[in-house]
Design a protein that fits this description.
InterPro entries: Ankyrin_rpt (IPR002110), Ankyrin_rpt-contain_sf (IPR036770), Multifunctional_ANK_Repeat (IPR051165). The protein has 431 residues and is mostly helical. 45% of the residues lie in helices and 3% in strands. The strands form 2 sheets. The chain has a two-stranded antiparallel sheet. β3 (279-281) and β4 form a beta hairpin.
């Protein structure tokens, strides 16, 4: 008959039917008008509806992972509508949307700005509205915004901006294949990006005055490749990073972090101690009587993150080292917010454990500022609490097995500590 849903419902009301249905449909009329205005890129109508009707702007299409009004406008490169929606409360933090309409794979909202270089202005507008942690959120391949931009071959200008707004911290993040931004650019033969990254590192590590933007320890404590960092050459002086640091006054004592191998060996002992494993110190095999806690208290000096993205917190959780977890939560609370290469946070690992161990670890992690970690999702968009229902799954069993048997260089070997009671000692896929 060519009638709209409301017109049909009105007809039925006259017949003594569908009165409740009509009421519900009318309540959605303004919202439908807003959606229609946004889809038609009608800025003025959108503005009038938002200002006069005070309509909600955080609307999703189809379902809970469908596109939002904001993500649609980003995809369409409509900067004016993006600004308007954000000014009226459109959420930019902790939002994931479908990669495209034919999949259930999700990506962080900000990644919608990485479609091409035309979206750089939108990205620059959204950046100050966002929690800085959004730059660390990952897609299904474990790519942060910076890694995704390199993967997609965006311009050097765009990639450089992403490095600058994260003050270089994004240079030590890794994707699911364990590659850092520079390693990924090298693998893709993107020499322009590699040169730009090298130049950025030189300019921000070697400084005679002021606090360097980029501290050298970040590369060694995150197990970056020594040759790729220390052999970076300054185009003007033709000196390597090592030579430049030797010539500088180095008042921040960064030279001690130049020996990547030594730093790696030190970090491995930290990880073993956090796992409750045996520690080799000064060529003497020592067994810590308190399961590694005293070693951690005495030696822990940086937030080491190995090539898997694991920290001492991750290792302590999967080996049920409650005293170490409690100590790290108190002295190194930042560890609670550091994800692994697949964007799994310590709380994800806590929920993956069996009961009652899971509850005990969760209480320690959630004692202070729980909201900061409860809403973080992994690369697949799963919240930590979602892992509770997956404890017996092959996926979660593999996650725990990996965290116990992958060494700091992402190589398979014996467990770093003693197997927890009830832990799966064989690879799950071989069962």
């Amino acid at each position: 008959e060519g009638k709209t849903a409301i017109e049909l419902a009105e007809t039925k009301v006259y017949e003594g039917k569908s009165e409740k249905c009509l009421s519900v449909l009318k309540s959605y009329r303004k919202t439908s008008q807003l959606i229609h205005a946004v889809l038609c890129h009608d800025v003025e109508t959108t503005r009038k509806l938002l200002e006069r009707e005070k309509l909600p702007v955080n609307i999703r299409f189809r379902d809970r992972i469908g596109k939002t009004l904001l993500s649609h406008c980003i995809e369409q490169h409509n900067t004016e509508l993006v600004r308007l929606l954000v000014e009226h409360g459109a959420r930019v933090n902790q939002i994931r949307v479908r990669l495209h309409e034919d999949t259930d794979v999700t990506i962080p909202l900000f990644h919608k700005c990485l479609c091409d270089n035309e979206c750089l202005d939108i990205a620059k507008f959204l950046n100050p509205q966002m929690d800085p942690a959004e730059h660390k959120e990952k897609d299904q391949a474990g790519n942060t915004a910076l890694l995704a931009a390199i993967e997609k071959g965006l311009s050097v200008r765009y990639i450089q901006w992403l490095i600058q707004v994260t003050r270089g911290s994004a240079l030590v993040d890794r994707n699911a294949d364990g590659l850092t931004p520079k390693e990924l650019a090298t693998a893709k033969n993107n020499t322009e990006v590699v040169k730009m990254i090298d130049k950025y590192i030189i300019q921000n590590v070697v400084q005679e005055s002021g606090i360097p933007t980029l501290l050298l320890p970040q590369f060694s404590i995150n197990f970056c490749c020594e040759e790729e960092i220390t052999r970076i050459t300054d185009e003007k002086t033709k000196k390597t990073l090592v030579e430049l640091l030797q010539d500088s006054n180095d008042k921040y004592n960064m030279k001690k972090w130049l020996n990547f191998k030594e730093v790696g060996n030190y970090a491995e002992k930290i990880m073993r101690a956090a796992s409750g494993g045996d520690i080799f110190e000064k060529e003497i095999r020592m067994k810590s009587s308190d399961g590694g806690l005293s070693y951690i208290k005495d030696k822990y000096d940086a937030n080491y993150r190995d090539r898997n993205g694991f920290t001492a917190m991750t290792r302590a959780i999967v080996f049920h080292k409650f005293d170490i977890i409690e100590y790290l939560c108190t002295t190194r609370p930042m560890l609670k917010t550091l994800p692994d290469n697949l964007n799994r946070y310590p709380l994800h690992y806590a929920y993956a454990l069996p009961e009652p161990e899971s509850e005990r670890v969760r209480k320690l992690l959630q004692e202070k500022n729980p909201q900061e970690i409860e809403k973080r999702v992994d690369k697949d968009g799963l919240y930590p609490a979602d892992y509770a229902a997956l404890r017996d799954s092959l996926k979660v069993q593999q996650i725990l097995y990996d965290a116990r048997t992958l060494n700091v260089y992402a190589q398979r070997g014996p467990p770093l500590g003693r197997w927890p009671v009830g832990a799966l000692k064989d690879p799950p896929e071989e069962e």
